[in-house]
Amino acid sequence: MASPWKRTACVAFLALCCCCLRSGALPWDTVAKGSPGEDSGCEGHQVDACGVCEGDGSSCEVVSGTFSRSTLSVGYHKILEIPVGAKNIKIQELTKSRNYLAILTRDGESVISGSWAIDRPGVFFAAGTQLTYRRPNEIRSRAGESIAAPGPTTQELHVYVIYQQPDPSVSYQYILPRVTTHNSQPAPPSHILPLGETMGLHTIEGEGFSLLDNNGNENSHPNQVPSDPLLSPTTESPGAQVGPEQLSPYGWKRTGSTLCSATCGTGRHQSVFSCVELETSVPVPDSLCEHTQRPVPQEEDCNTQLCPAFWDVGEWSECSKSCGPGTQHRQVLCRQPLANGSVVPAGPRRCRHLEQPETSASCQLKICSEWQIRSEWTSCSVPCGVGQSVRDVKCVDNLGDVVPDEDCNMKLRPEDLRNCDMGPCARSWFFTHWSDRCSAECGEGIRSRTVVCLMNHISSLPLEGCGDERPDDRMPCDLGPCQHKPDWYTGPWGQCSSECSTGTQSRSVVCLLHSNGSFEVAPPSDCAHLPRPADTQQCHLKRCGAKWYVTEWSSCSRSCEGGYQVREVRCLADDMTESRGCDPFLMPEDREECNTQPCVPEIDESCQDMYYNCNVVVQASLCVYSYYRTACCASCRRVSGREGGLPRR
């Protein structure tokens, strides 16, 4: 029979482990499958849904269901609340859609795709677990979004669907452990996981522990090593004393380590020490060990292997065509995660272990509009001859609505206008009345009329084929002999006055008397009652191109002893606009010297200085005043002479 102290320790340990389960301190994968690197002890046996070897599934509860709605308002809609301690979480969109999955904490803090920001697929850490978010982008894939997490969760998570497309459908499943409390009876051993293999967030190196059945008897786990009876207090005689040299049967032992802070690329974890029975290495409550002797946890590197490279997939581009089959592209790059959490580009060979996603795909936004013939050809526009026939052709979209012609392929547009031949028409010569005026005011002249071959019905198209008997369109006329009739006669135009650009040409204009075929020169007054023809006109032989133009010279700056005069020079094109086409070496001078003769002072006996200090007047520039100019006439005149202000002889 097991000793009372051992039964007490086991019950206390079971209560402690149940508390750990309720707080989410035990990783579900570890509880179900055993610690990494340890033998689960279930080779060749069935594992139930809870991960228990030969279990009946009673140690956990599987929660699953499906959320589906036909229509919702656009935005976030909560579909599930995942409680603390949930494990093996699987959330799957049943069909691919434009909806998105999102996860927030109970306090509304974003974990995945919160605050109207859609996250890229990847790995996220929250609520004490790792969440893997996937979004298949391949065109051929029909799978929707999914979120998976091993758990257990240390926070309540709320799952949302971001509604954008009708008929969202999401399935979910997670596992909750069934635990006992201090006041409840422990479950049968077959329902209990081998807690000796797990505890908290670390693995334990012990091999087993004992439980109490409903009658208070000890049930040993198959892997448990029996305790040494010599160390059991129940084997001692009443009143026996333990000597000072006898050590405590419990002590601290490294039983595992915390989860690594990174799955790859070098993370950190801490060693975990637990209170165990030294002889059997069975975990016992920490209160049985001396807390002052508990070793300080040490940090160590873990998962030092290089993180695998992955394909970073960009968003699809716009479809190359607004309707009908087109192509869209996206950028696919191989990227390598580093230990510091950053991601850098890598060569494609780093991702050769993965199938490269497609970089281009076919797309079709809508069915292109098409041409539709909506009427038959109309009758010919003429009863005979060549006319035209029309029909109604419209561009129609896939809904049957008429749209602008630009929405259809103009190269494929059916004809809506064609010629039609109704056979030959009867044709006749049509002519106007003879003109009332003769071409000559005296003597012989001609009269004219217009003759045209037309169809004998209303038409604006002249046609050939009226026959060779064309009516005359000219006839002679005679208004009588000319008797000394005066008239202006002109000679040929003379030569143009300019070789290029605009010039002038002239001709002779004389008044002649016409009398029976002879002409006689008459004075211009005899023809004054008739309009006189022009004897000059402008002429233009060719374009001159750019030429230099100058103005008149300005007046000389000095009247003697050398001054200068200036003029403006410009290069102008034929249209009198500024040009750069003139030869710079032929540019006329725009400045030249003038009045180079010496200056002869004009002697004025009356112009003398009245004061001896007139030089002061000059220095003070007082000569501009008439008083000083008179009082210091000679000095002021000398200054004015040097400045060119006085006349010279």
Which descriptors apply to this entry?
Jelly Rolls; 649 residues; six-stranded antiparallel β-sheet; flat; four-stranded antiparallel β-sheet; mainly beta; 8 domains
What does this molecule look like?
The protein has 649 residues and is mainly beta. It is built from five helices and 40 strands. The chain starts with a helix and ends in a 7-residue tail after the last helix.
Topology:
Layout: H1 4-23, H2 28-33, E1 60-68, E2 75-82, E3 87-93, E4 100-105, E5 110-112, E6 122-126, E7 129-134, E8 146-149, E9 157-163, E10 169-177, E11 198-199, E12 202-203, E13 210-212, E14 218-220, E15 250-257, E16 267-277, E17 299-302, E18 310-313, E19 326-329, E20 332-337, E21 343-345, E22 360-363, E23 370-373, E24 386-390, E25 393-396, E26 402-403, E27 417-421, E28 427-431, E29 444-448, E30 451-455, E31 474-478, E32 485-490, E33 502-506, E34 509-515, E35 518-522, E36 536-540, E37 547-550, E38 563-566, E39 569-572, E40 591-594, H3 614-619, H4 626-631, H5 633-642
Antiparallel strand pairs: 1-10, 2-9, 3-8, 3-10, 4-5, 4-9, 6-7, 7-8, 11-12, 13-14, 15-16, 16-17, 18-20, 19-22, 20-21, 23-25, 24-27, 25-26, 28-30, 29-31, 32-34, 33-36, 34-35, 37-39, 38-40
